[in-house]
Amino acid sequence: VEASAAVAGESSTATWTVVWTDLLTACDLYRAKAYKVDAVPNTSDQYFAYISYDIDLFEEGSIANLTASIIGNVFGFKAVKALRLEDMRLPVAYLKTFQGPATGIVVERERMDKFGRPFLGATVKPKLGLSGKNYGRVVYEGLRGGLDFLKDDENINSQPFMRWKERFLYSMEAVNRSIAATGEVKGHYMNVTAATQEEMYERAEFAKQLGTVIIMIDLVIGYTAIQTMAIWARRNDMILHLHRAG
């Protein structure tokens, strides 16, 4: 019980000692509450602790702020030997502050003009080592052979053997050639993942100028960058694919 209360305090208003500034705020309201503790079945030293937080403790629409509180300092907290987040339930009022994806499978079907059957797609292989020209050849052969789309893999970004702009140009050339050859709408997921947010913006803007309707990012870019690219995609009427790499 004491450990769960300590976790609740550390993840909200409490600190390691008593401070007079507690008198300047409504600590009773803002301090998280450990309202229930249950033993884990068939164990003698493990427990489920249920902790509630006031909604005002979290910035609206910020995954970074949410995770900093819920899975932040408490996971290095000496009051517990080990800690694991089992579940989290969020109020609808808070969930509605997140925009979420701008498009889903219905929009993708509309833009690809494919209905009544599953999409048929694949990833370019080998994912590393191809030149831009050969990469584009693989894209063309796959799309002309019957695929609806191909995609970049998670770790193909802008390496010495093929820079990102070269890949984008050859890939879109392949998409356009396959459309002309088959009479069908085709596509390619262009990975705009990069080291900085500015570089991702540059790559996404270039992909848009080339005429692609979908871009891709990797999960490893982090919460803030994911949200930022989702907002960019919404504003630019672009489908955004999030690769699970992470």
UniProtKB/TrEMBL annotation:
Protein's UniProt keywords contain Iron: no
GO BP term, pick one: reductive pentose-phosphate cycle
InterPro entries: RuBisCO, RuBisCo_large_chain_AS, RuBisCO_lsu_C, RuBisCO_lsu_C_sf, RuBisCO_lsu_fd_N, RuBisCO_lsu_N_sf
GO molecular function: magnesium ion binding; monooxygenase activity; ribulose-bisphosphate carboxylase activity
Transmembrane segments: 210-233
SUPFAM superfamilies, alphabetized: RuBisCo, C-terminal domain, RuBisCO, large subunit, small (N-terminal) domain
Chief site of localization: plastid
Keywords from the named record: Calvin cycle, Carbon dioxide fixation, Chloroplast, Lyase, Magnesium, Membrane, Metal-binding, Monooxygenase, Oxidoreductase, Photorespiration, Photosynthesis, Plastid, Transmembrane, Transmembrane helix
Co-factor binding comment: Binds 1 Mg(2+) ion per subunit.
Ranges where the Ribulose bisphosphate carboxylase large subunit C-terminal domain occurs: 104-246
UniProt GO cellular component terms: chloroplast
One Pfam family cited in the UniProt record for this chain: RuBisCO_large
EC assignment: 4.1.1.39
Top-level taxon: Eukaryota
The keyword Membrane is assigned to this record: yes
Record family assignment: Belongs to the RuBisCO large chain family.
Quaternary organization: Heterohexadecamer of 8 large chains and 8 small chains.
Protein name: Ribulose bisphosphate carboxylase large chain
Organism: Neoharaldiophyllum udoense
